[in-house]
Amino acid sequence: MRFKKLLALIIISTFLLTGCKNDKKYNEYMEEGQQAVKQEQYEDALDYFESALTEKDGDTEATSLHTQVEKILQVEAKIKNKLYDEAIELCNEIIKSDSESSVCRDAAQSLKSQCEKLKEEQEAKSMKAHEENICKIKELEQKQIETEPRVKELEQKLVEQEGKITEKETLLKAQKEELEQAKALQNLLLAQKEELEAKNKEIIACLKKQKVLQDSLRQTSIYHFFHQACTKADSKITEEKWSSNGYLESTSSHISILGAFVIEIILTFVFVFVVLRVTKKAENGKIAVFVIGLTLTLVHIFGIYYTGTSVNPARSFGPAFVSALLGNTAPLKQVWLFIAAPLAGAVIAVLVYRFLYCGKSKKSE
User: Fold this and answer.
1) 211: exposed, middle or buried (Cβ count in 10 Å: 0-12, 13-18, 19+)
2) How far apart (Å, rounded) are the C-alpha atoms in residues 276 and 12?
3) What is the pLDDT of residues 83-95, one digit of tens each?
4) What is the DSSP string of 83-131?
5) Can you tell me the distance from the alpha carbon of 91 to that of 57, in angstroms, rounded to the nearest whole number?
6) What is the Cα Rg of the chain in Å?
7) % of the chain at pLDDT higher than 70
8) How many angstroms separate the Cα of 106 from the Cα of each of 54, 88, 93, 112, 234?
Protein backbone atom coordinates (compact mmCIF):
# COMPACT_ATOMS: atom_id res chain seq x y z
CA MET A 1 0.00 0.00 0.00
CA ARG A 2 2.72 2.52 0.96
CA PHE A 3 4.84 1.44 -1.96
CA LYS A 4 2.03 2.26 -4.40
CA LYS A 5 1.52 5.69 -2.82
CA LEU A 6 5.21 6.40 -3.07
CA LEU A 7 5.25 5.23 -6.68
CA ALA A 8 2.35 7.53 -7.58
CA LEU A 9 4.09 10.49 -5.93
CA ILE A 10 7.32 9.71 -7.79
CA ILE A 11 5.46 9.58 -11.14
CA ILE A 12 3.76 12.92 -10.46
CA SER A 13 7.02 14.56 -9.36
CA THR A 14 8.88 13.26 -12.43
CA PHE A 15 6.13 14.55 -14.68
CA LEU A 16 6.34 18.01 -13.10
CA LEU A 17 10.15 18.20 -13.21
CA THR A 18 10.33 17.02 -16.82
CA GLY A 19 7.80 19.63 -17.95
CA CYS A 20 9.69 22.40 -16.16
CA LYS A 21 13.05 21.34 -17.63
CA ASN A 22 11.71 21.09 -21.17
CA ASP A 23 10.04 24.52 -20.90
CA LYS A 24 13.31 26.04 -19.71
CA LYS A 25 15.33 24.63 -22.62
CA TYR A 26 12.61 25.58 -25.05
CA ASN A 27 12.56 29.18 -23.81
CA GLU A 28 16.36 29.38 -23.98
CA TYR A 29 16.44 28.17 -27.58
CA MET A 30 13.63 30.53 -28.57
CA GLU A 31 15.38 33.55 -26.99
CA GLU A 32 18.74 32.68 -28.58
CA GLY A 33 17.06 32.20 -31.95
CA GLN A 34 15.34 35.59 -31.77
CA GLN A 35 18.61 37.23 -30.72
CA ALA A 36 20.37 35.62 -33.71
CA VAL A 37 17.68 37.02 -36.05
CA LYS A 38 18.25 40.51 -34.63
CA GLN A 39 21.99 40.11 -35.31
CA GLU A 40 21.19 38.89 -38.88
CA GLN A 41 22.72 35.47 -38.12
CA TYR A 42 19.87 33.61 -39.80
CA GLU A 43 21.55 30.20 -40.16
CA ASP A 44 22.28 30.14 -36.41
CA ALA A 45 18.71 31.21 -35.71
CA LEU A 46 17.46 28.33 -37.86
CA ASP A 47 19.47 25.87 -35.74
CA TYR A 48 18.10 27.34 -32.48
CA PHE A 49 14.49 27.06 -33.65
CA GLU A 50 15.09 23.46 -34.75
CA SER A 51 16.42 22.73 -31.25
CA ALA A 52 13.33 24.35 -29.75
CA LEU A 53 11.15 22.08 -31.89
CA THR A 54 13.00 19.04 -30.55
CA GLU A 55 12.07 20.17 -27.03
CA LYS A 56 8.44 20.90 -27.99
CA ASP A 57 7.51 18.92 -31.05
CA GLY A 58 4.79 20.63 -33.08
CA ASP A 59 4.98 23.94 -31.18
CA THR A 60 3.16 26.55 -33.29
CA GLU A 61 5.39 29.51 -32.43
CA ALA A 62 8.68 27.66 -32.99
CA THR A 63 7.39 26.19 -36.27
CA SER A 64 6.24 29.62 -37.48
CA LEU A 65 9.59 31.29 -36.64
CA HIS A 66 11.52 28.39 -38.22
CA THR A 67 9.53 28.79 -41.46
CA GLN A 68 10.01 32.58 -41.44
CA VAL A 69 13.80 32.26 -41.05
CA GLU A 70 13.91 29.81 -43.97
CA LYS A 71 12.05 32.38 -46.10
CA ILE A 72 14.47 35.13 -44.97
CA LEU A 73 17.38 32.98 -46.22
CA GLN A 74 15.53 32.59 -49.51
CA VAL A 75 15.09 36.39 -49.66
CA GLU A 76 18.84 36.88 -49.27
CA ALA A 77 19.48 34.42 -52.12
CA LYS A 78 16.96 36.29 -54.33
CA ILE A 79 18.70 39.60 -53.56
CA LYS A 80 22.08 38.14 -54.56
CA ASN A 81 20.56 36.99 -57.87
CA LYS A 82 18.88 40.43 -58.33
CA LEU A 83 15.38 38.86 -58.26
CA TYR A 84 13.91 41.77 -56.31
CA ASP A 85 10.24 41.19 -57.15
CA GLU A 86 10.34 37.59 -55.87
CA ALA A 87 12.25 38.75 -52.78
CA ILE A 88 9.57 41.38 -52.05
CA GLU A 89 6.80 38.74 -52.37
CA LEU A 90 8.58 36.52 -49.83
CA CYS A 91 9.00 39.51 -47.48
CA ASN A 92 5.26 40.21 -47.73
CA GLU A 93 4.50 36.58 -46.80
CA ILE A 94 6.73 36.90 -43.72
CA ILE A 95 5.26 40.27 -42.73
CA LYS A 96 1.69 38.93 -42.76
CA SER A 97 2.56 35.90 -40.60
CA ASP A 98 0.65 35.56 -37.29
CA SER A 99 3.49 34.56 -34.95
CA GLU A 100 3.63 36.16 -31.49
CA SER A 101 7.22 37.34 -31.94
CA SER A 102 7.72 40.19 -34.43
CA VAL A 103 11.50 39.77 -34.77
CA CYS A 104 11.26 37.97 -38.14
CA ARG A 105 8.64 40.43 -39.40
CA ASP A 106 10.95 43.33 -38.53
CA ALA A 107 13.85 41.64 -40.36
CA ALA A 108 11.60 41.01 -43.38
CA GLN A 109 10.47 44.64 -43.38
CA SER A 110 14.12 45.77 -43.42
CA LEU A 111 14.94 43.40 -46.28
CA LYS A 112 11.88 44.57 -48.17
CA SER A 113 13.03 48.21 -47.91
CA GLN A 114 16.45 47.14 -49.14
CA CYS A 115 14.90 45.27 -52.10
CA GLU A 116 12.73 48.25 -53.04
CA LYS A 117 15.75 50.54 -52.94
CA LEU A 118 17.84 48.18 -55.11
CA LYS A 119 14.95 47.79 -57.52
CA GLU A 120 14.61 51.58 -57.86
CA GLU A 121 18.33 51.82 -58.57
CA GLN A 122 18.03 49.11 -61.24
CA GLU A 123 15.11 50.90 -62.87
CA ALA A 124 17.02 54.18 -62.78
CA LYS A 125 19.95 52.52 -64.58
CA SER A 126 17.57 51.12 -67.21
CA MET A 127 16.01 54.54 -67.76
CA LYS A 128 19.46 56.09 -68.05
CA ALA A 129 20.49 53.50 -70.66
CA HIS A 130 17.23 54.15 -72.51
CA GLU A 131 17.91 57.89 -72.60
CA GLU A 132 21.46 57.31 -73.81
CA ASN A 133 20.19 55.10 -76.65
CA ILE A 134 17.72 57.80 -77.68
CA CYS A 135 20.56 60.33 -77.79
CA LYS A 136 22.66 58.02 -79.94
CA ILE A 137 19.74 57.52 -82.33
CA LYS A 138 19.34 61.26 -82.66
CA GLU A 139 23.06 61.68 -83.32
CA LEU A 140 22.94 59.01 -86.03
CA GLU A 141 19.92 60.65 -87.62
CA GLN A 142 21.73 63.97 -87.61
CA LYS A 143 24.79 62.40 -89.26
CA GLN A 144 22.55 60.82 -91.85
CA ILE A 145 20.99 64.19 -92.63
CA GLU A 146 24.44 65.74 -92.93
CA THR A 147 25.67 63.03 -95.33
CA GLU A 148 22.69 63.20 -97.69
CA PRO A 149 23.70 66.54 -99.29
CA ARG A 150 27.18 65.17 -99.78
CA VAL A 151 25.83 62.10 -101.57
CA LYS A 152 23.65 64.25 -103.82
CA GLU A 153 26.58 66.52 -104.56
CA LEU A 154 28.76 63.60 -105.59
CA GLU A 155 26.04 62.18 -107.77
CA GLN A 156 25.66 65.55 -109.50
CA LYS A 157 29.37 65.76 -110.14
CA LEU A 158 29.32 62.23 -111.54
CA VAL A 159 26.56 63.21 -113.99
CA GLU A 160 28.46 66.34 -115.10
CA GLN A 161 31.70 64.47 -115.66
CA GLU A 162 30.23 61.56 -117.66
CA GLY A 163 30.95 63.48 -120.91
CA LYS A 164 34.58 64.01 -119.86
CA ILE A 165 35.42 60.38 -119.00
CA THR A 166 38.33 60.24 -121.39
CA GLU A 167 39.88 63.41 -120.05
CA LYS A 168 39.31 62.97 -116.32
CA GLU A 169 39.26 59.18 -115.91
CA THR A 170 41.51 59.27 -112.82
CA LEU A 171 39.43 61.94 -111.14
CA LEU A 172 36.23 60.03 -111.88
CA LYS A 173 37.57 56.84 -110.27
CA ALA A 174 38.47 58.72 -107.11
CA GLN A 175 35.04 60.28 -106.96
CA LYS A 176 33.41 56.83 -107.44
CA GLU A 177 35.42 55.46 -104.58
CA GLU A 178 34.40 58.39 -102.41
CA LEU A 179 30.78 57.86 -103.39
CA GLU A 180 30.97 54.16 -102.51
CA GLN A 181 32.47 54.98 -99.13
CA ALA A 182 29.69 57.50 -98.46
CA LYS A 183 27.02 54.94 -99.36
CA ALA A 184 28.66 52.27 -97.20
CA LEU A 185 28.71 54.75 -94.32
CA GLN A 186 25.08 55.52 -94.92
CA ASN A 187 24.15 51.83 -94.92
CA LEU A 188 26.14 51.31 -91.74
CA LEU A 189 24.32 54.20 -90.11
CA LEU A 190 20.97 52.78 -91.20
CA ALA A 191 21.85 49.36 -89.80
CA GLN A 192 22.97 50.89 -86.50
CA LYS A 193 19.77 52.93 -86.37
CA GLU A 194 17.60 49.83 -86.88
CA GLU A 195 19.56 47.93 -84.22
CA LEU A 196 19.18 50.74 -81.70
CA GLU A 197 15.47 51.05 -82.47
CA ALA A 198 15.01 47.32 -81.84
CA LYS A 199 16.88 47.58 -78.53
CA ASN A 200 14.81 50.62 -77.61
CA LYS A 201 11.59 48.67 -78.25
CA GLU A 202 12.83 45.81 -76.07
CA ILE A 203 13.68 48.23 -73.24
CA ILE A 204 10.24 49.91 -73.52
CA ALA A 205 8.49 46.50 -73.40
CA CYS A 206 10.56 45.46 -70.37
CA LEU A 207 9.75 48.73 -68.58
CA LYS A 208 6.04 48.27 -69.27
CA LYS A 209 6.14 44.75 -67.80
CA GLN A 210 8.00 46.03 -64.73
CA LYS A 211 5.45 48.82 -64.31
CA VAL A 212 2.50 46.38 -64.48
CA LEU A 213 4.17 44.04 -61.99
CA GLN A 214 5.05 46.94 -59.70
CA ASP A 215 1.43 48.18 -59.73
CA SER A 216 0.15 44.71 -58.85
CA LEU A 217 2.68 44.40 -56.01
CA ARG A 218 1.72 47.82 -54.68
CA GLN A 219 -1.93 46.82 -54.66
CA THR A 220 -1.00 43.64 -52.79
CA SER A 221 1.03 45.63 -50.24
CA ILE A 222 -1.88 48.02 -49.70
CA TYR A 223 -4.18 45.04 -49.11
CA HIS A 224 -1.82 43.55 -46.53
CA PHE A 225 -1.48 46.95 -44.85
CA PHE A 226 -5.22 47.32 -44.33
CA HIS A 227 -5.58 43.65 -43.40
CA GLN A 228 -2.97 43.99 -40.66
CA ALA A 229 -4.51 47.27 -39.48
CA CYS A 230 -7.91 45.59 -39.08
CA THR A 231 -6.56 42.58 -37.19
CA LYS A 232 -4.01 44.38 -35.02
CA ALA A 233 -6.35 44.96 -32.07
CA ASP A 234 -7.70 41.42 -32.06
CA SER A 235 -4.20 39.93 -32.12
CA LYS A 236 -3.15 42.04 -29.14
CA ILE A 237 -6.18 40.98 -27.12
CA THR A 238 -5.58 37.32 -27.98
CA GLU A 239 -1.92 37.48 -26.94
CA GLU A 240 -2.73 39.08 -23.61
CA LYS A 241 -5.48 36.56 -22.72
CA TRP A 242 -3.86 33.31 -23.80
CA SER A 243 -0.25 33.79 -22.75
CA SER A 244 -0.83 32.21 -19.30
CA ASN A 245 -3.50 30.53 -17.14
CA GLY A 246 -6.06 32.63 -15.29
CA TYR A 247 -9.68 33.32 -14.43
CA LEU A 248 -12.14 36.23 -14.30
CA GLU A 249 -10.84 39.05 -16.58
CA SER A 250 -7.66 37.12 -17.43
CA THR A 251 -9.58 34.79 -19.78
CA SER A 252 -12.03 35.24 -22.61
CA SER A 253 -14.68 33.21 -20.74
CA HIS A 254 -14.48 35.38 -17.54
CA ILE A 255 -14.94 32.21 -15.48
CA SER A 256 -15.24 32.52 -11.69
CA ILE A 257 -12.62 31.30 -9.18
CA LEU A 258 -14.80 28.36 -8.13
CA GLY A 259 -15.53 27.41 -11.73
CA ALA A 260 -11.85 27.53 -12.66
CA PHE A 261 -10.95 25.43 -9.60
CA VAL A 262 -13.57 22.78 -10.40
CA ILE A 263 -12.59 22.60 -14.10
CA GLU A 264 -8.89 22.17 -13.25
CA ILE A 265 -9.68 19.42 -10.71
CA ILE A 266 -11.86 17.54 -13.24
CA LEU A 267 -9.34 17.83 -16.09
CA THR A 268 -6.42 16.74 -13.88
CA PHE A 269 -8.51 13.90 -12.44
CA VAL A 270 -9.31 12.59 -15.95
CA PHE A 271 -5.71 12.83 -17.13
CA VAL A 272 -4.09 11.19 -14.06
CA PHE A 273 -6.79 8.48 -13.91
CA VAL A 274 -6.14 7.57 -17.56
CA VAL A 275 -2.38 7.44 -16.91
CA LEU A 276 -2.84 5.14 -13.91
CA ARG A 277 -5.28 2.89 -15.73
CA VAL A 278 -3.39 2.52 -19.03
CA THR A 279 0.00 1.89 -17.38
CA LYS A 280 -1.27 -0.79 -15.01
CA LYS A 281 -0.32 -3.67 -17.35
CA ALA A 282 3.08 -4.03 -19.03
CA GLU A 283 1.53 -5.28 -22.29
CA ASN A 284 -0.19 -1.87 -22.71
CA GLY A 285 3.21 -0.20 -23.27
CA LYS A 286 2.78 0.36 -27.03
CA ILE A 287 -0.69 1.88 -26.86
CA ALA A 288 -0.17 3.73 -23.55
CA VAL A 289 1.79 6.57 -25.18
CA PHE A 290 -0.93 7.16 -27.75
CA VAL A 291 -3.76 7.06 -25.21
CA ILE A 292 -1.99 9.41 -22.78
CA GLY A 293 -1.12 11.89 -25.54
CA LEU A 294 -4.66 11.84 -26.93
CA THR A 295 -6.11 12.36 -23.45
CA LEU A 296 -3.82 15.34 -22.82
CA THR A 297 -4.79 16.85 -26.17
CA LEU A 298 -8.53 16.49 -25.50
CA VAL A 299 -8.10 17.94 -21.99
CA HIS A 300 -6.38 21.02 -23.46
CA ILE A 301 -8.96 21.42 -26.22
CA PHE A 302 -11.78 21.40 -23.66
CA GLY A 303 -10.18 23.62 -21.00
CA ILE A 304 -8.16 26.17 -22.98
CA TYR A 305 -11.17 28.45 -23.47
CA TYR A 306 -12.01 28.56 -19.77
CA THR A 307 -8.66 28.71 -17.92
CA GLY A 308 -5.96 28.15 -20.52
CA THR A 309 -5.66 24.51 -19.25
CA SER A 310 -3.00 23.88 -16.64
CA VAL A 311 -3.19 20.22 -15.46
CA ASN A 312 0.47 20.82 -14.55
CA PRO A 313 1.64 23.39 -11.96
CA ALA A 314 4.95 23.84 -13.82
CA ARG A 315 3.07 24.80 -17.02
CA SER A 316 1.27 27.59 -15.07
CA PHE A 317 4.12 28.83 -12.89
CA GLY A 318 6.60 29.31 -15.78
CA PRO A 319 4.53 31.75 -17.91
CA ALA A 320 3.28 33.53 -14.78
CA PHE A 321 6.84 34.05 -13.54
CA VAL A 322 8.01 35.36 -16.93
CA SER A 323 4.99 37.69 -17.14
CA ALA A 324 5.85 39.05 -13.68
CA LEU A 325 9.41 39.74 -14.82
CA LEU A 326 8.00 41.65 -17.80
CA GLY A 327 5.79 43.77 -15.52
CA ASN A 328 2.46 41.87 -15.64
CA THR A 329 1.91 40.47 -12.11
CA ALA A 330 -1.74 39.39 -12.60
CA PRO A 331 -0.94 35.79 -13.69
CA LEU A 332 1.45 35.32 -10.74
CA LYS A 333 -1.27 36.38 -8.30
CA GLN A 334 -3.64 33.76 -9.72
CA VAL A 335 -1.11 30.90 -10.09
CA TRP A 336 -1.96 29.46 -6.63
CA LEU A 337 -5.20 28.05 -8.04
CA PHE A 338 -3.35 26.24 -10.83
CA ILE A 339 -1.00 24.63 -8.30
CA ALA A 340 -3.63 23.59 -5.76
CA ALA A 341 -6.32 22.38 -8.20
CA PRO A 342 -4.11 19.97 -10.23
CA LEU A 343 -2.67 18.50 -7.02
CA ALA A 344 -6.17 17.99 -5.63
CA GLY A 345 -7.36 16.42 -8.88
CA ALA A 346 -4.35 14.06 -8.91
CA VAL A 347 -5.01 12.95 -5.31
CA ILE A 348 -8.69 12.29 -6.05
CA ALA A 349 -7.72 10.29 -9.17
CA VAL A 350 -5.36 8.10 -7.09
CA LEU A 351 -8.03 7.51 -4.44
CA VAL A 352 -10.73 6.63 -6.98
CA TYR A 353 -8.34 4.36 -8.89
CA ARG A 354 -7.40 2.50 -5.68
CA PHE A 355 -11.03 2.16 -4.68
CA LEU A 356 -12.11 0.79 -8.08
CA TYR A 357 -9.20 -1.47 -9.03
CA CYS A 358 -6.85 -2.11 -6.12
CA GLY A 359 -9.64 -3.63 -3.97
CA LYS A 360 -10.69 -5.96 -6.81
CA SER A 361 -7.14 -7.18 -7.36
CA LYS A 362 -6.81 -8.04 -3.64
CA LYS A 363 -10.09 -10.00 -3.67
CA SER A 364 -9.01 -11.97 -6.72
CA GLU A 365 -5.73 -12.84 -4.97
Assistant:
1) exposed
2) 11
3) 888 888 888 888 8
4) -HHHHHHHHHHHHT---S--HHHHHHHHHHHHHHHHHHHHHHHHHHHHH
5) 26
6) 39
7) 82
8) 26, 14, 12, 10, 20
